[in-house]
Amino acid sequence: MQTVHPWRREGAVPAVDPADLKTAWNLVYQTKKERPGVIAIGRGLWEQVLSPGADVDAITFRAAMLDLIFKHHAAELGNLQPTDAAVLSVMSDFPLRWLQPGGKPPFDPHKFISRLHNPSAA
After folding, report:
1. Angle 79-83-86 from CA coordinates, rounded to 5°
2. What is the DSSP letter of 99?
3. pTM value?
4. How far is CA 31 from CA 9, 24, 40, 65, 107, in A?
5. Coil, strand or helix: which one is 55?
6. Which residue in 6, 56, 62, 73 could disulfide with 46, CB within 3.0 to 4.6 Å?
7. Are 99 and 74 in contact (CB under 8 A)?
8. What is the pLDDT of residues 83-108, one digit of tens each?
9. Are 66 and 21 in contact (CB under 8 A)?
């Protein structure tokens, strides 16, 4: 039986509640702080800590993309932090695509950063 990764599918990643995105970010970083190294958080725990009916896959994918932006574009982000309300608001509904075979990026990080710095350009 082949396992399909929940982030590998067709189409756009649904928008999420910024509060759920913040909860996901905080859970991952608190867990990493307590247990350095590779971590895995089960779906059952996500379902307990996120809003009822929240899309776990969309929230965790958006949190992972936020992590990549802050790792690879810190200079462009200045003093912004991943849990800033403006950052969470933009990432919660920024157009993203699920991962596709062939490695096509799910979004343009420079467009994300531009929208952060110019919210009216959305």
Report:
1. 75
2. B
3. 0.89
4. 27, 11, 9, 18, 27
5. coil
6. 56
7. no
8. 999 999 999 999 999 998 777 789 99
9. yes
